[in-house]
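Let us walk through a complete example step by step. Step one is to write down the protein sequence. Step two is to encode the small molecule, adenosine-5'-triphosphate, as a SMILES string so that its atoms and bonds are unambiguous. Step three, shown after the inputs, is the structure prediction itself.
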Amino acid sequence: MLKTILKEVKEFKLASILTPILMLLEVISELMIPLMMGLIIDKGINSSNLNAVFKYGSLMLICAFAALLFGGLSAHYGAYAAAGLAKNLRSTMFKKIQGFSFKNIDKFETSSLITRMMTDVTNTQHSYQMSLRMGVRAPFTFIIALFMTFSINKKLASIFLYAIIFLAISLLSMMYFARIAFKEAFERYDDLNSSIQENVSNIRVVKAYVKEKDETARFIKTTKKLYDAFVKAENITVLNSPIMMLTTNACIIALSWFGANMIVNKTLTTGELMSMFTYTMNILHSLMMVSFFFIMIIMSFASMKRISEIINETPSITNPKNPITEVKDGSISFKDVCFEYYDNTEDYVLYNINLDIKSGETIGIIGGTGSSKSTLVQLIPRLYDVSLGSIEVGGVDVRNYDLKILRDAVSMVLQKNTLFSGTIKDNLKWGNKNASDEEIIEAAKHAQAHDFIMSFKDGYDTHIEQGGTNVSGGQKQRLTIARALLKKPKILILDDSTSAVDTATDAHIRKAFREELPDITKLIISQRISSIIDADRIIVLDDGKINGIGTHEELLETNNIYQEVYETQYKGGDSHE
Ligand SMILES: Nc1ncnc2c1ncn2[C@@H]1O[C@H](COP(=O)(O)OP(=O)(O)OP(=O)(O)O)[C@@H](O)[C@H]1O
Ligand SMILES: [Mg+2]
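Step three: the predicted structure of the complex.
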């Protein structure tokens, strides 16, 4: 896990090395100051030697400036390296997610992907910066200050040993409990994130159902849980300060007591005692820093684990070794295909599908909700891979094609489709970035979108909001069809893509397809018989199995399910076109 994270910091190796070195120099400069102070008192004030005061005073000033300079530089490089790590982590994760198959995406939920890319990366960034700085500063201050005190007076310095043992025990136990509490707090943070994400992205549904009050109550409950968890965690760490103060004061009293005795006995100078006092603060303070540092590191371990889970996830669908780069034609053939969403469960949602579709054929697919219509067609452009059997496009197993070539040849309008923020033209060009204006207009015309686009003030430059919220459902569907057509595919799959389009426009789209795009193999999924009535063949799916195949007339004679659907849709004089 650490290896995965550290790989991303390679680019900032120099800064990552400079930060602790500069920090070390800062600590050394800083720790010279108490020594100088002692010397000023002993060699200067106590011996009434102004020259010595001046000499050690200037040295002290130099040390202070050096500490400032090194400290500043170390902070700069530390921030630079940590921010760089965050940048690289985010781009690696983003790239990785782009390579995810639908199956990988099913595994991590969207909100969790977002939390991992935002909060977890920020946590890692902070803890990395802290490791480079505090992780170096605290132990070094501790060691150097302890060394200094021992070199001043061994006997007096032994007081620290008791203090250190006491502090270590109390800090360790505090750390243990704080870790548990913080871990819980961070889990609550996850809940909060997904709660915000879910609500905000579905705010329209919330409003439509007048659920604002309930949602707010639910949200307050989540924030309250987070609040409780943090209060609990902080309640443990607040003990840190009083324990520190208690130990420091006890040390100072002991030092004063024994030190004063030593001064009277002439085994210690006043200046040395003064330096001892300052080092006391340094030593105990660095111990406290170490404890905090450990809490932070332990907490960020959880974040790092979640990040490396994404980076180390193997995409379930990848390009083959020697990919085929040409799709000969738009024929499709399913051979004994079975499919399950979860590996090795034998919970097949598609069972034993055998099907041959000729290039240029128009195929209608109908069946109840959950009958696996979407699942069936998603296997063709390899959005999912078959569990058993195989699918061929243009006579070649889809798994042997270059993915981009295959998905360009098999253009699919997903059932849950969306538009991106940008102009209408940007959105259409998304299908094919090299498309000319004429091609864009042609595709829009075939999808019956040109007229309504032109009715907008800005035409093809009309701005689309994120998710396509400022166009109607039917308009959005026609734009997504035009986008799919721009790829100039050999196979076009429309998954319930005209459900929000009125029947007359729907008929125009089909007419355009038939007359203008006769070579493209078309698979049209619909709940409406009118949308598939003139298809060359219609497939009736039932519970993941093919229940019947034939023309409208044939199915009307032989297929029970089809007859039922027909009767419910056409009873009451609603004649078809
Ligand atoms: N991503 C998924 N993970 C797990 N199960 C899924 C997933 N998508 C669909 N399923 C399940 O697979 C079955 C077939 O779903 P599918 O979406 O193919 O049906 P459909 O015929 O397209 O339905 P609809 O007409 O409502 O679009 C359903 O039982 C569904 O619960
Ligand atoms: Mg579906």
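Step four is interpretation. Residues 26 and 511 are 78 Å apart (CA to CA).
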